[in-house]
Write a structure and sequence with these properties.
Length: 97
Amino acid sequence: MSGPGFRAVDGPIEPADWVTVQVDGRATQLPSGSSVLAALLQHAGRAGETTAQAPDWFCAIGQCQRCRVRINGREAIACQVQVQAGDVIDTQESWSG
């Protein structure tokens, strides 16, 4: 059996380890290498960061699809995609149709 699938973070994430993306039209910095879902959950509810609200539950393995977003105009499951510098992420709250 292999070790855990999550990597522990030792101490604060340094600024060089962050990438700038657009979330619902607002520029924000998210940890490099994390899933889009993890990054959004980390910043959900922070004033001025994002309009996204943390869901009451989610599977984090792509099955429930409750974390569906648009990344650079294409629909994606946020827990299955790593955040990349320059991404334009639209949560369902910002979709106009």
